[in-house]
Design brief:
mainly alpha; 84% helix; F1FO ATP Synthase; 88 residues
């Protein structure tokens, strides 16, 4: 296999990997929506617990958002700064 073919295969596999990591971002957005919906349900049932539920929801949102950010960074690295291409 020549170098051009190997580079093409590596680039296409990297693009596919970037697409897979971006699915993590979609799952992340759905999970954050679900967290917010459950917090609103809890506040509707017990309005006096709104402060605790909001604080807990925001911490959960922050932890969940880091997953999406990491997936985005990995996807950008795979597409634009792929370290594996230099090893060919």
């Amino acid at each position: 296999m020549n170098e051009l073919t190997a580079k093409a295969i590596l680039t296409s596999v990297s693009a596919f990997g970037a697409a897979i990591t971006m699915f993590s971002g979609m799952a992340n957005a759905m999970a954050e929506g679900w967290i917010a919906a459950k917090a609103v349900e809890g506040i509707a049932r017990q309005p006096e617990a709104a402060g605790d539920l909001t604080r807990t929801m925001l911490v959960g949102q922050a932890v969940s958002e880091t997953t999406g950010i990491y997936a985005f960074v990995i996807a950008l690295a795979l597409i634009f700064a792929n370290p594996l291409i230099g090893m060919l």
